[in-house]
Amino acid sequence: MIGEASLVENRKSVLESGTIIQIRVWRLPRPTHERPHGLKYSLFYGRPGERIIGYDNEAGKGDHKHYRNREEAYIFISLEKLIADFEADVRREIENE
């Protein structure tokens, strides 16, 4: 299905600490039961091989977020809110490092 989707957001930054922030969002050809908002996304903060914070909607799991080894549901409201929530979580994590 991703092959038919169009990439609408693709950003990657490597911070001085070596951590990576990557935001990738695709618009699907049509909404699905699993993705009624019509988006597939993967938002990542971490290091190679280590996810510290992640938001995604992997097939079979729906919208959810990861904090290190913990996973919880995420209530999707809009793409703008998704990115703002992710960036706020990343800022909090950086402040606590």
Explain what the structure shows.
- By secondary structure, the chain is an alpha+beta fold.
- The chain has one domain.
- Helices cover 19% and strands 42% of the residues.
- It has 1 helix and 6 strands.
- The chain has a 6-stranded antiparallel β-sheet, covered by helices on one side.
- A hairpin with a 2-residue loop joins strand 3 and strand 4.
- It is globular, with a radius of gyration of 13 Å.
Q: Helix count?
A: 1
Total number of distinct structural domains: 1
Instruction: State the helicity in percent bands.
Output: 10-25%
What is the H-and-E element order?
Answer: EEEEEEH
How would the blueprint of this fold be written?
Layout: E1 6-14, E2 20-27, E3 39-47, E4 50-56, E5 64-67, E6 70-73, H1 79-96
In short:
This protein is an alpha+beta fold and 97 residues long. It has one domain. It has one helix at 79-96, and strands spanning 6-14, 20-27, 39-47, 50-56, 64-67, 70-73.
Identify the notable features of this structure and list them briefly:
1 helix; single chain; alpha+beta; 97 residues; 6-stranded antiparallel β-sheet
